[in-house]
Each structure stands twice: as structure tokens, then as C-alpha cells.
């Protein structure tokens, strides 16, 4: 049992992930045996896009990870999404997997074969091969433009300023274009090439994300992509379909706060959320009164945490009411603040979950004449959890559950149980 991890070479992505679960702080959320089952048994059987297949030893390949992540979300396999995200998390920590044989796919892949004129300096800066996901070429937009742009952009590389293709890299006029070749021209909407000075500065991450995040496959709010200086995160907001699915899974907070809190916790683990995403989820799934009650309790919890840890923010600083402008890149403080806000919100949900006690709902559950007693007991247990504050495992909850089970069972079973309960083992009315 305890040696299951030793079967996997630490040089494989799966073995590397198993060895670093504690370092990544995922050992409390993920189960090793389930991770191994998904990676070696379940995922290799899924049909991914482009006839790709998940390797049993795991992978850091951006295309395969993205296809598997999208497939799990599309088919509602929500329990598998955190395990896919674990590979994304390890992928963003190159220092933990430098010994892995597939380490070269973390930040860069071979340049696209359609650009034979690219030199070695291009291959050193080129991002991974073209994909249909959010723009991961923030540092080198020219390399990916023929693959991600609409068809009108494709002939642009064959229409340089110079009449011959071989002189593409020599045609730009005077200007600071030495570090970036003139292939930046295809990114311009006009068919005629423009001077290279205008496209040299890359637009902000947020602007590029808003312009290209309309793909239906974009479901992860913060997507890790490769840049010239390493992995960066770009924001891809939830789609309307995602929000509808989230609202359905969370349900009503007032009717079933336990389910709401459980699904919210899972959502916070499965997605790399931002403040805006948390705000959208709350406004979509909670009423105004519920949201105000939860946020007030969350800020009170933040004040209590600050008493024991003065480095933690308090009140509105911990759970902001407006966009705080946090930076979620590695090495910045935004991710720590976001995690603290999620913890405060969950604590606020628990404090604000005023579950309405309604024993009449339990009395409405009657055993059918042909119903299995075990199924009937399970229905009573679920009703006790949903409509009361009693735990079926505690003495008080067990007593209430037994009373309703006897009084609301089928007539013949009720008579038998009452006889056994009143007279003990000395008399049973249905003994022969």
C-alpha cells in the first residue's frame, strides 16, 4: 500500500508529481491512489483532440494537458479536474521537475515547421507550438500569427517589403527592429506591410487576453502560458455556459448550505480564480442578502485571523468590495491575498449558513410497502442532514433517526420493530 509511489520513476511527470505533492501543498486535496488510477488507467482511454492520447506516465505537453482539461470539464468529470490541474501546477514550477525527461516542453518547443527561414535566435525565444488556447506568445507574436490568425493573415509573410522572401529579415527600415524580425507585419489588420516600429511594443496581457479569449474551450480563469522570461498567467473569464454550470452545481445557499460550501471549495481548488471571478460567482449564485451576510462574516473572520497573524489583511482589505488590482503572477502578492480571501469567504459561508430546521419534512418521508428498508433509512438520513442541525452519527441524531424509522416504516415492519423494541428479545410478533 505504502510503496505504490515507488513503482513510478521520478523522471516521469507522474513520478515527479507524486514526489512533489507535499511541496506543492496538494497532499491534503489529492489522493495518490486516485491520481495514479486516473493517470495510468482512465485518462489513456479518453479520446482527445487531434487523435492525441494521454501517456500513462504523464506529460507536461501543453496541447495534451489542455485537451484533457477541456474534455473533463465538457463531460462534467469535475472530480478529475483538480488532478489535471496538478500537472499544470507542477508545470509552472520548473525547479521541481528539472530532472524529468520531458522538462523541455515546459517553456519552449521546437519552432513551427512552416517558418523555415527562422534562425537560431528565433528558436531560443519561440514559445510552444501553435494551439487553439489563449495567446501564449506574449513575447513573440509574429511566430504564432500564421497559425492563430484568420486566413487573411496567412499570405502576409509572403508579401514582404522586399520582392524576395529571403530578404524578409533585411527589409525593415531604420528603427529598433533588430531584436524582433519583420514578421510582426502579419499581425496588422491591413494587407499592406507597415513600418515595424508600431507593432514592436507588445500590448498588455489583459488587452491581448480580452481580444482572443472568445474560444469556447477557455474555461480556466487564469491560464499559464509560456513567455520569453518564463511562465506567465493570462486571464480568461468564465463563459456564460460555465456560469450556468457553476450555478447548477452550487445550488441554493439557503436551501442547502453544506452542498454550496463543498462545491465552492472544489471550484476554488479546480480553478485559478481572480477577485473578479469570485465576485461573478457570488453575484450569480447568491441573493443580495446572502452575499452581504457572507461578506460581513468573512471580514469578521479576517479580523480574528489578523489577531494571531498580523501579516494578514483585515476587514475590507481581506475581502474587498471593489476590484483591488492584485497581481497574480509568480512572485507577486496577489495570489496570497486571493487565497486568504477564499479562506475568509468559506469561513463566512459556514458562519452565515443559518439552516432552517423543519422536522415536518422528515415526517413526510414514509416507507413504501415494497421499499427496501436500507433505502428508506438512507432517505431519512439525508432528510435529517438537510432539514435539521443534527448529525446522524451523534447520540441525539441517532435517537431521532431511529424514532422516525420505526414510526414511519411500513405497517408490518413497524409492528415487528415496535414489538422487538418494547419486549426485547423475549417476544417478536412475527416469530413462528
TrEMBL record:
Sequence segments annotated as region (Disordered): 112-218
Biological process according to GO: virion assembly
Bias type Pro residues, positions: 148-163, 188-204
Domain Core shell protein Gag P30 positions: 243-416
PANTHER family: GAG_P30 DOMAIN-CONTAINING PROTEIN
Protein name (record): Core shell protein Gag P30 domain-containing protein
Protein source organism: Canis lupus familiaris
